[in-house]
Design a protein that fits this description.
- This protein is of the alpha/beta class.
- The protein has a single domain, classed as Response regulator (Rossmann fold), CATH 3.40.50.
- Helices cover about 45% and strands about 15% of the residues.
- The protein contains six helices and five strands; from the N terminus they run αβαβαβαβαβα.
- Strands 2-1-3-4-5 form a five-stranded parallel β-sheet, sandwiched between helices.
- β1, α2 (about 25-40) and β2 form a beta-alpha-beta unit.
- α3 (about 50-55) runs parallel beside α4 (about 75-85).
C-alpha cells in the first residue's frame, strides 16, 4: 500500500479500534498485524477460534477478522460462539479466507458475517473493507 494510502487510513481510524485477528498461519497473522498496526489499529492475534474466545473472555474487540479453516474451532464455529454471547453479538466479524465458494459465502451472510476477503488480497482492499464497516 503506498504511503499516501497509509496516511489516509490513519486519518480514517477513529479512536483505538481494536481488531482481533484469528488465523492458524503465523505468516498471515504477522502480515495482518503489520498492515493493521501501520494504519493505526490496535491488533490482537489468536491461532484459532478457541484461542480467540479465550482472548475475548478478557477483552472486547471492535472487529474480528477470522480465517475459516483452522484446527480446534473453525471460523464458522467461532462466529456462532460470538453471536451466542449477548455481550459480543454486535461485534462485526469479517472472514479472510482462501475459500471463495458462493455456498460458503452465503452461509457466512446467513450467519451474520460483516464482510468476506479472499486470500491472497491487497492490503488496501482490507483497509477499505474495514472503513466500510463504519466501526
Amino acid at each position: 500500500m503506498p504511503g499516501s494510502e497509509f496516511r489516509r487510513a490513519q486519518q480514517q481510524v477513529r479512536g483505538p479500534t481494536r481488531i482481533l485477528v484469528v488465523d492458524d498461519s503465523s505468516v498471515i497473522r504477522l502480515l495482518l498485524e503489520d498492515v493493521l498496526s501501520a494504519v493505526g489499529y490496535e491488533v490482537w492475534v489468536a491461532e484459532d477460534g478457541a484461542d480467540a474466545l479465550s482472548i475475548m473472555a478478557n477483552r472486547r474487540p471492535d472487529i474480528v477478522l477470522t480465517d475459516l479453516n483452522m484446527p480446534n474451532m473453525d471460523g464458522f464455529a467461532l462466529l456462532a460462539a460470538i453471536r451466542a454471547r449477548p455481550a459480543y453479538a454486535d461485534v462485526p466479524v469479517m472472514i479472510i479466507s482462501s475459500e471463495d465458494a458462493e455456498a460458503k459465502k452465503a452461509r457466512g451472510r446467513d450467519a451474520g458475517v460483516a464482510g468476506w476477503i479472499v486470500k491472497p488480497f491487497e492490503p488496501a482492499e482490507l483497509i477499505e473493507a474495514l472503513w466500510n464497516l463504519d466501526v
